[in-house]
């Protein structure tokens, strides 16, 4: 029997999946994992075998809780493929300047949302199990309002004197060492602005790794229940570390030149 959702609406009523989704979940639960993966791979909504994204989201979360890493990885890729196809229609190159970068940013932030949900920080995917298309449309609009078609795609470390997002110890220590001067360097607003601009200018693959490190995600973990950067980016931990090192080398070079 499908597990109930934890989130509640503003009236205190628990989220409930539509009856057709509950029926779909019950049917899919009777299948083995390999058969379910084949069903999830059907991408055409017109196909009789198409599985709603609400159901794919449910089994993605369940695979993580069960420690079924291979199954989780495959379903994660299938869900991100659907998201990518949706974004090509709504954030098209013909309608929006810099559409490719914006699509990548939205997908990256959605992957981070999945990671936070898997790590138990919030029930961040509950609404996606109820009405996936509406939930993702709201998520996409929220990201677009933040980054804008012509604005920078990376959130600043700080802005206009307001406290920015928390920075992980690894990034903070590395940043403080870029120009020398010890740990007080990261407290210098001018340095933080220079660092932010340098991060924005990194290639996408390097910028994504630094962005996830900033939020405190681990590169890798022996605990299968921990969502890591390697899992999110679907590469091995050595690749992540190489990207991190290249990013830090580039940032150090740029910031030393500016100094």
Beta fraction of the residues?
Answer: under 5%
Overall geometry comes to: globular
Let me know the average pLDDT.
80
Structural class: mainly alpha
Distance between the termini: 61 Å
Order of helices and strands: HHHHHHHHHHHH
Helix percent reads 55-70%
Report the major sheet. Answer: none
Low-confidence runs of at least 5 consecutive residues: 150-167
Note the total helix count: 12
Counting DSSP E segments of at least 2 residues, the number of strands comes to: 0
- Rounded Rg: 20 Å
Task: Give a quick summary of the entry.
The chain is mostly helical. It has helices spanning 19-29, 33-40, 53-66, 69-90, 99-118, 126-130, 132-147, 169-178, 189-200, 204-214, 229-233, 237-258.
Structure overview:
With about 260 residues, the protein is mostly helical. About 60% of the residues lie in helices and about 0% in strands. It is built from 12 helices and no strands. The chain has helices spanning about 20-30, 35-40, 55-65, 70-90, 100-120, 125-130, 130-145, 170-180, 190-200, 205-215, 230-235, 235-259. Helix 3 runs antiparallel to helix 4, helix 8 (about 170-180) runs parallel beside helix 12 and helix 9 (about 190-200) crosses helix 12. The relative contact order is 0.09.
